[in-house]
Write a structure and sequence with these properties.
Layout lengths: L10 H12 L4 H14 L6 H21 L3 H11 L5 H17 L2 H4 L7 H11 L3 H21 L25 H13 L6 H10 L3 H4 L7 E2 L4 E4 L10 E4 L2 H10 L14 H12 L11 H14 L2 H8 L4 H8 L7 H9 L12
Antiparallel strand pairs: 1-2, 2-3
Helix pairs in contact: 5-7, 5-8, 7-8, 9-10, 9-13, 10-12, 10-14, 14-17
Length: 356
């Protein structure tokens, strides 16, 4: 910036200096500020026009930054907006967000508008060790930033721009006939058979573990042969009706007489009792228990016996066959004959349980 030294200030110059002083800014500071502005906006085109554009964009950015909120505030607001959702969904959001803020302490105070895709990728890598956890974390983070976008707290959903991790589905082996019967027999023998109905519903109706915990006997209609799952019960948030086939009906009919329709299908202290049933059954000791193994078992034996993929998709509550084919079906060791035995055999007790 060239400052003329040979000429005397004109009346316009004097008026400008007077205006600057009236604003409480020393003239030299104002001249240096102008120099910084012209240097910053340097480029093609008229310098004054570019400087004005730089001022306008800078003003918008400053207003945006002051309008934004911290990530921790965005989490709280997002949870409040979703308070009508299922408790399990809210618990997942709360847990995943808290884990990211614990592993990356700077995230809690960071303005959501200043979060970049690179930031999101770093938060996910530091917070979650496995691809599946990072996949879930990305969904939660994206949901929070998407809510912030709708509120005007940020200009983009930075998490959406992070490539999702590649997930390699592990094949889950369905239980053998012996393992299935052994598990049912153990459930019948322990705790006065309190765990048997829930066990049978997971095995013979494909009910998810967290869904069965919400079921009461009023959701089970033995006359119509249906288990009704309300939207608040299911993973996807939609209602579902699952057929009660004869082998399941024979078990439920023996256990449904006691108590009121409002009684929970699962007994008190369910998690501890169910874990003990699995342990005492002795199955899957080497490989370890898989969360949805009974749902996988149900799907595989259902298709082997009924050979109706559309029916199975409906019973499972899937909107498309892709998830069913990619994740749930494992026909290894299952034939049409074993499929028929799974669905038509009455409750046959294996050998008595051994005392610990």
């Amino acid at each position: 910036m060239n400052i003329p030294t040979s000429s005397f200030p004109t009346d316009a110059d004097q008026a400008g200096i007077f205006l600057i002083r009236s604003l409480g800014i020393p003239p030299m500071d104002a001249f240096l500020l102008l120099k910084d502005l012209l240097d910053t906006s340097r480029g093609r085109g008229d310098r004054i026009t570019r400087a004005k554009r730089c001022i306008r964009l800078g003003g918008e950015a400053l207003a945006d930054r002051e309008k934004s909120v911290s990530f921790s505030q965005a989490v709280r607001a997002s949870l409040e907006a979703r308070k009508h959702r299922r408790p399990r969904t809210l618990q997942e959001i709360r847990y995943m967000a808290a884990r990211m803020m614990k592993k990356c302490p700077e995230l809690a105070r960071k303005q959501v508008r200043s979060i970049t895709p690179e930031d999101c990728g770093r938060y996910l890598r530091k917070s979650f060790p496995t691809p599946r956890q990072r996949h879930k974390g990305r969904l939660i983070l994206s949901g929070i930033l998407n809510y912030s976008l709708k509120r005007g707290w940020c200009r983009r959903n930075a998490a959406f721009l992070v490539p999702p991790p590649i997930l390699r589905e592990k094949r889950i082996r369905a239980l053998s006939l012996y393992e299935a019967k052994r598990l049912l027999h153990t459930a019948e023998q322990l705790f006065r058979g309190e765990c048997l109905p829930a066990c049978a519903l997971m095995l013979y109706a494909g009910i998810r573990p967290h869904e069965v915990k919400r079921l009461t006997w009023k959701h089970i209609n033995l006359k119509s042969g249906l288990v009704s799952l309300a939207p608040t019960h299911t993973k996807t948030g939609g209602s579902r009706h699952v057929s009660i086939l004869p082998v399941l009906g024979s078990i439920l009919s023996r256990m449904s007489s006691a108590g009121s329709p409002a009684r929970s299908v699962c007994p008190p202290n369910w998690e501890k009792k169910w874990k003990e049933v699995r342990r005492r059954s002795g199955i899957l000791k080497k490989s370890g228990w898989v969360q949805d193994v009974l749902r996988h078992t149900y799907a595989s034996y259902h298709l082997a016996h009924f050979c109706n993929q559309n029916l199975l998709q409906k019973e499972m509550g899937h909107s498309s066959p892709s998830l069913l084919l990619a994740r749930y079906l494992n026909m290894e060791g299952i034939t049409s004959a074993t499929g028929a035995m799974f669905w038509t055999h009455s409750f046959v007790s294996p050998a008595p349980l051994k005392e610990d």
